[in-house]
Amino acid sequence: xxxxVGRRAxxxxxxxxxxxxxxxAAAVTVLKAVAARFGHDFxxxxxxxxxxxxRTAKSPLPEDTLAACKDxxxxxxxxxxxxxxxxxxxxxxxxAGLLGLRKALGAYANIRPARIYKGLEGAGPLKSEVARxxxxxxxxELTGGLYFGSPxxxxxxxxxxxxxxxxxxxxxxxxxxxxxRLARGRRRKVTSVDKSNVLETSQLxxxxxxxxxxxxxxxxxxxxxxxxxxxNLVLCPAAFDVVVxxxxxxxxxxxxxxxxxxxxxxxxxxSLGDGPGLFEPVxxxxxxxxGRDVANPIGAIATAxxxxxxxxxxxxxxxxxxxxxxxxxxxxARTADLAPRGAKVLGTREMARAISxxxxxxxxx
Length: 365
Ligand code: IPM
Ligand code: MN
Hints:
Elements: E1 8-16, H1 20-38, E2 41-46, H2 50-57, H3 63-71, E3 74-79, H4 94-104, E4 109-115, H5 128-131, E5 135-141, E6 153-155, E7 160-162, H6 169-184, E8 189-194, H7 200-213, E9 220-225, H8 226-235, E10 242-245, H9 247-260, E11 270-272, E12 277-279, H10 298-311, H11 315-330, H12 348-357
Helix pairs in contact: 1-10, 1-12, 2-4, 6-7, 8-9, 10-11, 11-12
The structure holds 3-isopropylmalic acid and manganese (II) ion (MN).
């Protein structure tokens, strides 16, 4: 076993809004089981973000929260977003908290792995024979593009608005590098997604990805326009290995992938870069599901697995969590999003308990 024995780690937990607190509690249940059974000491502290922080601290990203995140070994986030802030100025919206946190941590590489779990081949909208073999990673650039570009403005009275899509060579180089390195540990195929038939930014993107690709002659590179990629993901998802793309395209395509695997509630992500890693499920705050113990916690629990592996360097522990998820699903445990009509449904807490009970005690060697 490669992991340290008795690792001490500080994990900042940011439950956020909607179903965020419930799925985060589920992930924490599993992290505590890992700590107990592998003999680690995880110090978990909770901090406000998003709408919850707007209500309690009048800022979507309070200073204390940011300081705790910078100081932590890893950050676990639930979700942000609350319709009651829909009309708020942009810097007072819950989302501003998350975007500010990603930027402040320099978390430019958002890694969103997706595959079809055994037993869920028919859970999504695809025919099982098309879904089978879907095993891909979306590498989404996370701190640039339209989300952060200026100038930006909104003049509702005048009926005009502006957003800007900037990218620079270093920004594209570093994210492309992440994608090619990741592909080396997988099926050695990178698909770069852009809109270079229309956008200058995409022309730069494509040129730089090709330059970076020259350093990875062992990895196959192809390019797809984002519209065509959206279609190909439905037609032949198994053909994709690593998909690298800019911030907004990555946001959109990863929700599509969530549908393809059966539920957006299954997908984890890691946002990596200069500071401590930020680990966040791909799904949002899902206000309609909040507080009812119905949300699927598997995305958040798989996110905890990424935190263990990429944030704390504990791959064996991450493997144990992933194996536990696979086992409960193989045994037929289903939350409401995955259950066929009439089937038995587990609540968020029951699913978390079922998964944490399957985390084995570390076998000493
Ligand atoms: C995501 C979310 C966020 C994003 C929102 C909540 C700002 O949709 O992580 O995919 O757009 O990045
Ligand atoms: Mn999204």
